[in-house]
Amino acid sequence: MQETIPDRARTLLKVLVERHIRDGQPVGSRTLQEEAGLAVSAATIRNVLSDLEERGFLHSPHTSSGRIPTALGYRLFVDSLLQVQEVDEAAVAAVRQELNPDKTTTDLVQSASQLLSAITHQAGIVTVPRQDAPQLRQVEFLPLSDNRVLVILVINQREVQNRIIHTKRTFTEEELREAARLVNQRYAGQALDTVKSRILDEMREARSRIDDYLSATLDLASQALHQEEGGDDYMLAGGLRLLDSATAEDVDKLRELFDIFERKKDLLHLLERCTRADGVRIFIGDEAGHDVFGDFSVITAPYGDGRRPLGVLGVIGPTRMAYERVIPIVDVTSRMLSSALSAGSGPNRT
């Protein structure tokens, strides 16, 4: 592609894309003549722009207006015309401070998504690592009001989860303490999937023996562990920032994009494609695999713990985003998140 675009056309395309990213408006030939620094007439520039439009790099929104880049034009710009900036020291310092190795994996992932959004002013997204064969270490039950019980689950070595469940009857503090002792005695150290299966089997046996207390205890454990199966597939920060650069015509497209965020499956499929990528990947428009991304770009990079890839982080924003700033931020954040996870013990330390 690069060999078939003359230098003059490449220069004009570069200036046009940069101006459109900055202003968000169609760019005319007179503006390009002033900014490109080429010793050519406005008529010559118009001819070059017409050729670029015919080849699919530019588009004229209205017959009397200037031109804007197409997804193909942005692709050429990103691949061969873009000059990536160095990440400024303040941004690097902020990333380093927030991605502290002492944080849990969950906190690190959340911090990374928030950092990406705050620094780039776009939506930041980070997939959550999947845990390997999580094991039940300990459970505690504490009584609350209105037949509610606070469940404290310790998974693997350091992951602590708190949740509230509603029970069919009121439990005393002593009953809950004894229930926790019974559950820990029977199931501590076993894989959660195994524990869930055994609890269901024993619930059936307890009911057949009409052992009310054992049945109630197992029901408590079943509720607590059933909720553990949930969890987020990814963390998204700054989704509303996409409204900042949206025009009235973009609102319907944004609704569809937010629907993609809500459904998760389609976006996860895109992100999972990037897990084993070598560095930053950029999807412009429908390269992401869905028409709803037509006016948006997705910039991703994988992260890991030094032993294997664990997930993907990235930025979602309009195609007219500041690629020269966003690309290095995504790259630096992925490296620093990987470094923080490498200093810990991987995804099971949350």
TrEMBL record:
This protein's UniProt keywords: Repressor, Stress response, Transcription, Transcription regulation
The keyword Repressor appears for this protein: yes
Pfam family membership, one: HrcA
Entry superkingdom: Bacteria
GO MF term (any one): DNA binding
GO annotation terms (biological process): negative regulation of DNA-templated transcription
Location of the Heat-inducible transcription repressor HrcA C-terminal domain: 107-327
Chain's role: Negative regulator of class I heat shock genes (grpE-dnaK-dnaJ and groELS operons). Prevents heat-shock induction of these operons.
Family: Belongs to the HrcA family.
Protein name, entry field: Heat-inducible transcription repressor HrcA
Provenance organism: Chromatocurvus halotolerans
Upper lineage: Bacteria, Pseudomonadati, Pseudomonadota, Gammaproteobacteria, Cellvibrionales
Record gene name: hrcA
